UniProtKB/TrEMBL annotation:
<feature type="transmembrane region" description="Helical">
    <location>
        <begin position="312"/>
        <end position="329"/>
    </location>
</feature>
<dbReference type="GO" id="GO:0016491">
    <property type="term" value="F:oxidoreductase activity"/>
</dbReference>
<dbReference type="InterPro" id="IPR005804">
    <property type="entry name" value="FA_desaturase_dom"/>
</dbReference>
<keyword id="KW-1133">Transmembrane helix</keyword>
<feature type="domain" description="Fatty acid desaturase">
    <location>
        <begin position="161"/>
        <end position="408"/>
    </location>
</feature>
<protein>
    <recommendedName>
        <fullName>Fatty acid desaturase domain-containing protein</fullName>
    </recommendedName>
</protein>
<feature type="transmembrane region" description="Helical">
    <location>
        <begin position="288"/>
        <end position="306"/>
    </location>
</feature>
<feature type="transmembrane region" description="Helical">
    <location>
        <begin position="163"/>
        <end position="183"/>
    </location>
</feature>
<dbReference type="Pfam" id="PF00487">
    <property type="entry name" value="FA_desaturase"/>
</dbReference>
<keyword id="KW-0812">Transmembrane</keyword>
<dbReference type="GO" id="GO:0006629">
    <property type="term" value="P:lipid metabolic process"/>
</dbReference>
<dbReference type="InterPro" id="IPR012171">
    <property type="entry name" value="Fatty_acid_desaturase"/>
</dbReference>
<comment type="similarity">
    <text>Belongs to the fatty acid desaturase type 1 family.</text>
</comment>
<keyword id="KW-0472">Membrane</keyword>
């Protein structure tokens, strides 16, 4: 059976080996008319119906010469009706729609869109002044907690039988994530009133992670200034279509990186962003060089000592495995902070600071022991409202935001469904739908995403 859609696109319905029908699009000429941008393919059959909407349809009929897209709208189709029609995007202004996608994505609340007339200063001014106060006792308490937890972790690794080592590594990796949060506060000038102390503590806190403090600080400042700004944000960023279409090898790497190994993709970010002097302005390079010297000196001194005392196996046990545990949290925390199907990346022209920081940041609750060891880094919305809030005051600031701006907040409890949503849906940037999943775009080259979708539990 063949159908003709708008813009000269042909639709064929083909028998499928597993029963039912599959659909196949063909389009022979280049370029899509503006009408196709708003087009939707509606199908219905049996007791199911659905849409392949605007940009999804555009991707489906991809116009680079003759391209073909396959799909399976319903495995039990008996009768199918197709039509091209305009389709309005779902609105987050509707409470029922927010509740529906909140349940679907693994959130406890999806906030209303932040109105254009709210500016970031309005939100900052609503916070009590005490949340900005630096308390040296509380700051050094976080250092004591991290040092004690890390020391305990190393002791457990040394004493644990082999079958308990994964638990020891999980504890130790979480403990050294606390070191990162301490350095993070130092970089934001919210650890101490003495800036030299902050630079020294921040540098030392990052050493066990082999993370150069100053290069990270410079790039992280951009993340805060341009959160969820397309092409500018230096944290998690959607895959751009022109990047995705560069080569088959790159597509394969991105599919694996943004799919099954996404909880460790911060390793690629660490390598790619922080060791190349050419990525920094001339005014920044001297401080970058100091940080790199500290890191390379640490590696040159501490790694041989570990290997001398414990061998290569000891280096793996005492350093590498906890470091991989740290990167699991680094990747997981940062992707949950700003990545969800309903959270858009905006072009610089349409970007709005209040919408990005208040409505584009996610508060996520983790088990309490993780929150303690990681110094509440996941109470993240107030941190994006103002980076001057110390980690020990974030909960007080979050309480204030809930009281004054609660209807705009995105909140979740860490769960399988939340992770599954991010890892299987949030891939290629799409102006209309925010994201297109790899296997929606090129299913034959993205089977690993389907595998992840099948294997990960859908438990919220």
């Amino acid at each position: 059976m063949a159908y003709s859609l708008c813009g000269g696109t042909n639709l064929n319905l083909l028998p499928h080996a597993h029963g039912g029908l599959r659909f196949q699009f063909k389009k022979a000429h280049h370029g899509l008319s503006s009408s196709n941008r708003a087009a939707a393919l509606w199908w219905s059959g049996g007791d199911r119906s659905g849409f392949l909407a605007g940009t999804q349809l555009r991707h489906a009929i991809h116009c680079q010469g003759m391209s073909i897209r396959h799909g399976w709208p319903d495995k039990k189709l008996q009768k199918t009706i197709f039509a091209a029609m305009p389709l309005a995007p779902s609105s987050l202004s509707d409470r029922e729609e927010r509740n529906r996608i909140s349940e679907k994505y693994g959130f406890t609340q999806i906030g209303e869109p932040v109105p254009d007339n709210i500016i970031l200063k309005n939100v900052i001014d609503s916070l009590p002044q005490e949340v900005f106060e630096i308390d040296d006792t509380k700051a050094w308490k976080t250092v004591a907690i991290s040092v004690a937890a890390y020391s305990l972790g190393l002791f457990l690794i040394a004493k644990a039988p082999w079958y308990l080592l994964p638990l020891a590594w999980a504890w130790t990796g979480t403990a050294i994530t606390g070191f990162f949060v301490i350095g993070h506060d130092c970089a934001h000038k919210s650890f101490s009133r003495n800036k030299l102390v902050e630079d020294i503590v921040g540098t030392l806190a990052f050493l066990p992670l082999i993370y150069p403090y100053e290069p990270w600080r410079f790039k992280h400042d951009i993340h805060h200034a341009k959160t969820n700004m397309l092409g500018e944000d230096t944290a998690w960023h959607p895959v751009l279509r022109e990047e995705y279409e560069t080569s088959k090898v790159l597509r394969a790497a991105l599919t694996v990186g943004y799919g099954p190994i996404r909880p460790w993709m911060s390793i690629a970010h660490w390598l790619g962003w922080h060791f190349d002097l050419k990525k920094f302005r001339p005014s920044e390079q001297n401080r970058v060089k100091i940080s790199l010297t500290c890191i390379f000196s640490f590696v040159a001194i501490v790694w041989p000592m570990i290997i001398y005392k414990t061998g290569i196996i000891g280096w793996i046990k005492f350093w590498l495995m906890p470091w991989l545990g740290y990167h699991f949290w680094m990747s997981t925390f940062t992707m949950v902070h700003h990545t969800a199907p309903h959270i858009p990346f905006k072009s610089p022209e349409s970007w709005n600071a209040a919408q990005a920081q208040l409505g584009g940041t996610v508060h996520c609750d983790y088990p309490r022991w993780i929150e303690i060891l990681c110094h509440d880094i996941n109470v993240h919305i107030p941190h994006h409202i103002s980076q001057k809030i110390p980690s020990y005051n974030l909960r007080l600031a979050q309480d204030s935001l809930r009281k004054n701006w609660g209807k705009y907040l995105n909140e979740a409890k860490w769960n399988w469904r939340l992770m599954k949503t991010i890892m299987t849906k949030c891939h290629i940037y799409d102006e209309e739908n925010n994201y297109v999943a790899f296997d929606e775009d090129l299913p034959e080259e993205s089977k690993v995403i389907g595998f992840v979708r099948r294997m990960m539990p859908n438990i919220a």
